[in-house]
Structure formats: C-alpha cells, structure tokens
Amino acid sequence: MAQNTRTTPAGTPTNVTQNHTKGGIGESTLRPDGTLKVTGEFAYSSDMWHEDMLWGQTLRSTVAHALIENIDISEAVAMPGVYAVLTYDDLPAKMKNYGLEIQDTPVLANGRVRHHGEPVALVAADHPETARRAAAKIKIDYKELPLVTDEASALAPDAPLIHEGRDDHHSGHVPHPNIVHRQPIIRGNADEAAKRADVIVKGEYTFGMQDQAFLGPESGLAVPAEDGGVDLYVATQWLHSDLQQIAPVLGLPPEKVRMTLSGVGGAFGGREDISMQIHACLLALRTGKPVKIVYNRFESFFGHVHRHPAKLYYEHGATKDGKITHMKCKIVLDGGAYASASPAVVGNASSLSVGPYVIDDVDIEAIALYSNNPPCGAMRGFGAVQACFAYEAQMDKLAAKLGIDPVEFRQLNAMEQGTIMPTGQVVDSPAPVAELLRRVKARPLPPEQQWLAAGEAADVRALPGGLSNTTHGEGVVRGIGYAVGIKNVGFSEGFDDYSTARVRLEVINGEPVAMVHTAMAEVGQGGVTVHAQIARTELGVTQVTIHPADTQVGSAGSTSASRQTYMTGGAVKNTCEAVRAKALELGRRKFGSYHPAWATAELLLEGGKVVTDGGEVLADLADVLEGEAIDEELEFRHRPTQAFDLVTGQGNGHVQYTFAAHRAVVEVDTELGLVKVVELATAQDVGKALNMLSVVGQIQGGTTQGLGVAVMEEIIVDPKTAKVRNPSFTDYLIPTILDTPTIPVDVLELADPNAPYGLRGLGEAPTLSSTPAVLAAIRAATGLELNKTPVRPEHLTGTGA
C-alpha cells in the first residue's frame, strides 16, 4: 500500500541562485554548484535519504549465456528484514522489455540470460547488507548455451541467435540476425580510383572496450505516491527518455511517473541507458515504501553499457604528390547482448570513417554485432573515436610511404568549408582542419628528458614508470605524434532533436529575477552555468535561479552528442527572447507616452533596466514588471537532418561538425615498455566560447579520456567464458593526476552561422584525436606498428601478444 503522506527526501535538488553584476555569455563565470562539490556538501544521488526507506539489491547472472531452468527464492523471502523478492514472473505490465531504440532488453531475465551480469532477481530489505545477503541466498539453476563472442562466431551459418524472431525496424535490411544494424556508404568508385594510386596502404586495427568510469555509481530513490504512481529521484542523462521506458513496464501512465534529476557524479554516455530506475520503482510500488538502490563499483561495471570494442579494416591510396585517391573500410563494432545505442553508433562510425579529409571515392561498411559480451552503447565520441584511431594511423602510414611530413600530408588533404562528405552532405560552416594542425605543430616543444638537468634532484614522476622507480633514464626515447578528428554535434539521421525551456521573469524583493527551468541533465558539463549566463545576457538581470531538472517541463533531450549548449542553450536563448519581447511590450503600454524612443528605438534589457541601443535608460525593469510575472515555455529545434540511405549511405545526416587536433609528446623506456606522456597539446574550434573556463575544462577532460584508452583503459572479457575479468578500479585503470600530462589548449572561435551565438558543441571532439596522437608518438619512439588499444608494456617489449 502506498504511503498516506509524502515527504521530501533528504538530498532532493533545490533551486540554485547566482547573483552577478555581469556574468553574461563570453565570461568565465564560476559554476553555481562548484563550491558545494569541492567542499563535499553537494548532494549526489547516492546521498539521498527518506524516512522508513528500504534498500534494493539486484541479483545478476554468473554466466554469460544460459537457460534459466529454476529460480528458488524461498530462503531469501524467509530472511528477517526482507520485504520483497521479485523475478520476471512478478512484473506487473504486459511490456516487460525496454531500450533506447529497440526494446530488446528485459527488465529481469525471462528464462534466458545473454550476458554476464544480467539482472535476474530483485530484493528489497530494511538494510543494505540484509538485501545483499538475501540476494545471495537465491538459487538459480543454469543450463549453459554456446557462446557468441566475436565476428566469426556471430556470423557463422549455424551461429546461435542472440535474439530469435527479431521484428525491429533494422531486422529487414541486415544480412544476418546477429547484426544489429548495417550502414554502407558508397561514393564515386573506389576500385577505379585505386588504379590511380602510386601507393596503397592497408591496416587492421583493434580498439578495446572502454568504460565510462564515472566516479558516482548508479543510484536513485523511488518513492511511492498516494495516486498509485511513483516519484523517482535519479542520476541520469535523459529524464524523458527514461520516463518513456519506465512507465510502460510499470503499467502506469507517464504522468504518474514523476522524475527529478538528483546529483550526477559523471556520465560520459554510461547513464543514457536504464540501469536501476525500473528496479527501484518496481520494489517501491510492491512494498509501498521508498526504495533506494546504490550500486557498488563492482556492480557498476555490469550496470551500464560500455564503449564498443571494434575491429577496423582500412585501405587508402595516394598519388606520389600526396593526394589521397580512395578509401575502403569495414568497421565491425561489438554491441554485446542488447542493442542500446548501437544503430546510431554505426551511423556515426560509417559517416565519419573518412576523417576530416577530402576523399571523393569511398567504399565504407559499418556493422554492429549482437554477442554474449557485455552490452555496449553510448560513450563520449560515439563511434567516431574508434574510426579516428584507425584513419589517423593510416595517415601516418601514407605519409611515411610517400616521404612527406605527417602534418603536411594531412594539411594537403584537409577538408574545409564547402567540402562534400562521403554522404553527399556539404560542410557549410568553417572547417579549419589545416589551421588546427598548424597550431599544434607550431607550439614550442617541452624540454627533452627534463630529469637530466635536475641531476640528483630529479623527480622520478617525470620518468616513465613514475613512482615505481623502475626507470632511471636508460633506454628512454622521445616520440612526437599528431592526429586530428571530426565529430558530429547533436542527434542525427532524421531524429526529431529538440529541447524545451521555461523562463519566468518577475520581481522578488524589489529586484527582477529570472527563473530558468529545463529538464537538462547536469552531469558535470556546466550547463547550469551557461543557462544562467544566457539569461543574464538576454534579460539584463543580475539574479538568475536555476530550477531543478525534472519531467514537469518538456524534454531537453540527452546530455550527450555534444548537444546541450547548442540545443537547451538555444531553447533558453529563444525563450528569454520571447520573455524580453513581452517585457518590452509591457513597458511600451505603461511608459510609451513618456518618451518617443519606446516606439522608435531598438530596445534592450541591460543591468536591470530598459535601455535604447544608444544606451539611454528608459525605465527600471522592476517598474515595468511591477508585480506581474512573465512566463514562457518554448521548444528549440536545429535544422532537420535526414536518414542515411540504406544502400548508398547518402543523406544530410548531421547538423554540425566539430574538429580538434592534438600533438602528443611521449618518452618511452623501450627496454621496460613504460610510457610517460609528457604533453598533449590541443587546438579546437569551438565556434563561440560561452564560458572559456568551462571550454578549456571540457577539452582537457576529453583529452585525458582519450589518453586513458591509449595506454591503460580496457575492460577485459574472457573469450572462452565471455565473463568480465577486471570489474574494479584496482584492475581497470584510469589516468590519475600522475598520469595526466600538461594539456595546453588553443581555442579557435570561428562562428557557425546556423547555431545559437555561433557556437559548436565541443565535449567529444578532444576524445577522438588524443588517442591516435599518443599512439603515433609511441610508434615514433619505438618504430613498432602498434595497431591495438590500449598499448601495454608487453606490446613494446615483444614479451606478449
């Protein structure tokens, strides 16, 4: 039975207010949540608390592919303190699956598990340890089935089908049921163009499975409501997408599932899919009590999707004067057991596989497989990361074979505004690829082997191996590498991409105050900062309040695809403009007879006043409003895009492109196989920097994530069992402050005339080119081919595969 009274959980997000005299776009205003986060006072979703709440626990499969022959929950149910144990048979609605695009993921396993760590049963208890012990008492009898773990086993004529009887909208055009989606792109005639090539290079590349490794684990709190619905407080990337997936499996109308964003400790794509949301709601509705679920780190590795591992097969040709003649490639992405975002990742990987280069003749194919490996989906860079690793290695091979400087070779073939993409789309805004490369190459190099000059005072942290104190300078060789990448911004391929903003302007305590309300997920990117800056710029107020994100306002789309500043920022801008127009009209009605400028001049709101474009003050905004509030809610959409043709891949699939380049400087102990990345210089065009401090932070963060996958990050899946072997931060390594080099940033601001303020989405692009730049530098130091990420010591010393 639902509770009779509703109280607000501890840790519920509240309005965030900043009072600035300036603080508009273009200024590096500080984050409103920054102080709370660095002092430990910020409430993350895992900090939420409700009186009389229960704790939820998920029981996950211990095998990767099996039939479930029996589930015995009797011992778990009998434990004191246990309120509920749920399995598939307890699900309340006809809809029992969910998914971002294809609803192929069961809420709880239905007679079969398809990957290691799949949810099978749920427990609610009065203490987290009780819930954990009860889950451990559930007995499951499995009958293991043959595994699908790679392309060969997935596409064999007698391959086990991961999903039998598929009827999704991709199933009709794929050549095998174990292919989630296939996207070819054909332009020109690659075979004929190859005949003009003086040199041809081929490469086979392997990209490892990367984890988003956000620090705040999946968590949330579900509170049953008096109307039979549920209030869910959760860390996510897309509130309304979650809502669309949650409500049907609960058997509730959407208006009875009320969602509020709680504090998010990072995301990077890993929170775009459902994790614990449905499970917490099911337990809350079954028990009539609030239920909190918090994953530990081990479970987090199984609770979200990862970056697709990939095999990439490339061929390029070039004339002796350095012009690329053609490109052929096949990209095979392992999507794991469920579709997640794999179809869209395929679209990105194929359409961006050529890189930021002019190549008229291409033959491209990208596919995503179903397998019994962990599900893979969205992660920062979204298909373009894997492709960039491969095509940039190819650029170095071509340059070396032609005897041309690798940067000059790239500049010779660099795209620019007006270039036609392999999909037939014209790049209709600045594409400063050659200039970005020029800037990173022109930057002064850091001193070589800095420890030599320091003598006995040398800091071992500057050496390969760092504090392990294994390298004393013997056999250390410097390497320098370059790379550049291209990434799309926003949702593509005809998706109706929009964001909503509600803005209220009123007088509080004698001061005009703007309230901005969106459903944008603030996952650390700084959207709440930028929204306040936009409101100050457009409404001329000093005080802006950001309302907590929830589903009581229209969708803001996902905090992904580098889209939020463009899309929800655009929605805030448009809505503020509408509020401003109403405020000025109100002023004309009240004060128009006092000054002719009310009727003849272009009017602005600045510093809490109505002013002419010449700076003359006509009225205080507080006097104009005088007890009245102006409230507007508007949607913002970018230019429409098109789905790619399923045969040729032609179509205007993307709304905007963004570019970044890197130069990596490494020092490698070639005897021990240890790498020290000394510097990762970057240059990126951001269109317009709305907040330069945030811009630089995003670029440096994305660069560091690319560094991680270059030299240390990989989820290891046992090929014999399809089990994850390293689900912990002890064994899955991410860069620390000791691993992260100096990252100087050069920012270009070449406006995109089609975007709000001319901005470009920027969060993903630096993740692309940092990885191949580091690999190129290591190759330069060692002379090894190195076609796999991450590079491990044994790859450099020849002591391992």
TrEMBL record:
Region spans: Disordered: 1-32
Protein name: Oxidoreductase
InterPro entries referenced in this protein's UniProt entry, alphabetically: Ald_Oxase/Xan_DH_a/b (IPR000674), Ald_Oxase/Xan_DH_a/b_sf (IPR036856), Ald_Oxase/xanthine_DH-like (IPR016208), AldOxase/xan_DH_MoCoBD1 (IPR008274), AldOxase/xan_DH_MoCoBD2 (IPR046867), AldOxase/xan_DH_Mopterin-bd_sf (IPR037165)
Matching Pfam families: Ald_Xan_dh_C, MoCoBD_1, MoCoBD_2
Start-end of Polar residues biased regions: 1-21
Stretches assigned to coiled coil: none
Aldehyde oxidase/xanthine dehydrogenase a/b hammerhead domain sequence ranges: 39-146
Origin superkingdom: Bacteria
